[in-house]
Design goal:
Blueprint: H1 2-21, H2 31-48, E1 53-58, E2 63-68, H3 75-90, H4 95-102, E3 119-124, E4 127-135, H5 139-151
Antiparallel strand pairs: 1-2, 1-4, 3-4
Helix pairs in contact: 2-5
Amino acid sequence: MIRRLSLALLAGAALAGPVRAQLADTKVLSSEGAKVALAAAEAEARKNGWALSIAVVDAHGELLAFTRMDGASLLSIGISQGKARTSARTKRATKEYADRITGGNNATLALDVMPLEGGVPIVVNGVVVGAIGASGATSPQDAQASMAGAAAVKP
């Protein structure tokens, strides 16, 4: 009986090592980090006189922070969130999808993405921890505000 118990414990210990190795410690965008990104994007918009909706999402595309600046259109709410979600889930700037369509790749329209410039991933130490999307100005201006927000997030 003791021998069987010892073998069972040894077998369990042998399995414990690989089980731990199958888990990864990942960094996530905190609420504070989302607020920093949002504030930096909003400051860029104010500096340039743009009325934007700005959304910050986690790495899965789920909303962490949002604002609709005074004067931003109601339509910009969903668009900013779609841009952020697309960028987080694909780990790419949404401009890539806009460029594909402009280049004639209409198959991109079949994807569940927001193919409008203005969403960018938030990358910290080479890892996408979230994304930010803006809408309400021109697409390049939306992207400029989003890039300012993403750049504000530090490790």
